[in-house]
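Mods, move this if it's the wrong board.
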Amino acid sequence: MQLQNDEQLWMIARQRASFKKSMISYFLVNTFLVCIWFVTNGRNGGYFWPVWPIIGWGFGLAVKYFGAYHGKHFFSTEREYEALKKKEQQY
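Not the wrong board. Structure tokens:
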């Protein structure tokens, strides 16, 4: 039982570390893209094309965040079982 808990904790730790790395990459790359936009045509009020990678990658990052910090509890079989058990006891 302890070995299974340790493995689950390691999996959660890997997911959270991976999310943090992805978040840093997201901010660095998108900052670079905004700088490119600004230097090329942003000063003249050109079309803000970096919005598309910011939105697309941001959505993926949000999914990764949810999986790393909230996913285990949200999709937990044990949690669903306990909820059904409580509901059954009410009847």
